[in-house]
């Protein structure tokens, strides 16, 4: 019997469309001899839908029409099965069932641990990182705090909330002066380079911060790395075992890799194919010493952040000093970084199979741990007065 995989994508995120691209790429590469695919689309209004029309990317050109022709559902546990039930039927008709969830989502409201927490509550086995790892991977400020505590290099930075900046703008501008220009301004909880600006001097800083505030309440200002080379390495595994992919060197005509570089495409890439669009060198043009350092740091970062499944760790290298900084992890990287594994002889379908196998093992491992007691301390409860002070 085939395993029924519920591929979950979309969501109320500025990376909504990126998620659709990533998910449909993965669906087309899942081994159909082993898996039955059940698409589960989360609209920008946070409603869940399923239906075969969700499998054609052309249908997403008109989202209103897409939803009209799909079936709105809720995911529920019925005995030991996970069912997709209609929200429009009086008697909650079962539309479909799944055995495991494969979330391929990006950004706030989904990738940040929100969706993982929902699936945990329902008890559904699911791929990729859990609540904590997902949340750490999304919040760039807390991420840096955790990595620094694990003695993993990150660039110098400051951070603040939007209201703090509005109350004392000059205070934070002075801190940025002390950090030293150029700097990179980022919303703390977004991905895909949304809202990120490279700022060369004081004249540009206000506009960059105000733009970032449009997207998030917490803002991160990083000291820009001089003599910059950007490299990425994918990791697959869990807390016990981690395996690294080839390392890529990412190229851009801009000071930082932009949303356009990643997803819009250019004359060479001809359209949107997710992170596959970005210009790159594989393997990266770095020394064996740096290659080994990046691979080691990838595994250390993966473990320090409590990650699982597939992740892509992004690095910043100062070519003059050969100092390597962890930039950020992509807990569910666009296209799942399949192109970084092909050079190691692993097809996309095999990568997805490994991912689902890890998820099943993680699920069984969690179920072997004690999460509740058979005894009921309320069985002899005699009211609020019986509680000891």
Helix tally equals 12
Tally of DSSP β-strands = 16
Instruction: Give the CA-based shape.
Output: globular
Q: In sequence order, what are the helices and strands, one letter per element?
A: EHEEHEEEEHHHEHHEEHEEEHEHEEHH
Q: Whole-Å distance between the termini?
A: 56 Å
Which percent range describes the beta-strand content?
A: 25-35%
- Main β-sheet, in a few words? 7 strands, mixed
**Share of residues in helices:** 25-40%
Radius of gyration equals 22 Å
The low-confidence parts are 258-274
Strand order of the largest sheet: 6-5-4-3-2-1-7
pLDDT average, as an integer? 90
Output the structural class. alpha+beta
List the SSEs and their pairings.
Blueprint: E1 3-10, H1 16-29, E2 35-42, E3 48-50, H2 63-68, E4 71-78, E5 81-86, E6 94-98, E7 100-103, H3 114-122, H4 131-138, H5 140-149, E8 157-161, H6 162-167, H7 169-179, E9 183-187, E10 197-199, H8 202-213, E11 218-223, E12 228-237, E13 242-251, H9 259-264, E14 279-281, H10 288-304, E15 309-318, E16 323-330, H11 339-342, H12 348-367
Parallel strand pairs: 1-2, 1-7
Antiparallel strand pairs: 2-3, 3-4, 4-5, 5-6, 8-11, 9-10, 9-11, 12-13, 12-15, 13-14, 15-16
């Amino acid at each position: 019997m085939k395993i029924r995989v519920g591929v979950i994508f979309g969501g109320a995120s500025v990376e909504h469309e990126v998620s659709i691209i990533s998910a449909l790429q993965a669906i087309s590469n899942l081994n159909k001899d082993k898996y039955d695919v059940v698409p589960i689309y989360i609209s920008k209004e946070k409603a869940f839908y399923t239906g075969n029309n969700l499998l054609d990317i052309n249908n997403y050109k008109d989202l209103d029409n897409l939803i009209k022709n799909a079936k709105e559902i809720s995911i529920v546990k019925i005995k030991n099965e996970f069912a997709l039930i209609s929200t429009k039927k009086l008697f909650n008709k079962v539309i479909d069932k799944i055995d495991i969830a494969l979330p391929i989502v990006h950004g706030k409201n989904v990738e940040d641990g929100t969706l993982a927490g929902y699936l945990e509550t329902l008890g559904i086995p699911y791929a990729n990182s859990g609540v904590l790892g997902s949340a750490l991977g999304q919040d760039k400020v807390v991420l840096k705090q955790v990595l620094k505590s694990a003695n993993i290099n990150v660039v110098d930075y400051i951070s603040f909330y939007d209201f703090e900046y509005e109350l004392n703008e000059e205070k934070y501008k002075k801190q940025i002066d002390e950090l030293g220009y150029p700097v990179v301004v980022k919303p703390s909880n977004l991905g895909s380079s949304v809202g990120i600006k490279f700022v060369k001097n004081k004249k540009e800083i206000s506009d960059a911060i105000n733009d970032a505030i449009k997207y998030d309440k917490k803002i991160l200002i990083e000291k820009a790395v001089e003599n910059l080379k950007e490299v990425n390495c994918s990791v697959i595994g869990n807390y016990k075992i981690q395996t690294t992919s080839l390392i890529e060197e990412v190229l851009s005509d801009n000071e930082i890799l932009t949303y356009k570089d990643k997803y819009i495409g250019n004359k060479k890439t001809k359209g949107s194919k997710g992170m596959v669009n970005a210009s790159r060198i594989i393997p990266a043009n770095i020394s064996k010493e740096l290659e080994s350092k990046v691979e080691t740091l990838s595994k250390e970062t993966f473990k320090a952040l409590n990650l699982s499944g597939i992740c892509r760790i992004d690095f910043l290298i100062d070519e003059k000093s050969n100092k390597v900084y962890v930039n950020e992890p992509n807990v569910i990287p666009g296209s799942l970084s399949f192109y970084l594994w092909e050079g190691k002889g692993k097809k996309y379908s095999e990568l997805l199979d490994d991912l689902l196998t890890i998820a099943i093992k993680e699920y069984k491992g969690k179920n072997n741990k004690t999460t509740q007691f058979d005894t009921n301390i309320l069985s002899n409860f005699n009211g609020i007065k019986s509680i000891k002070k």
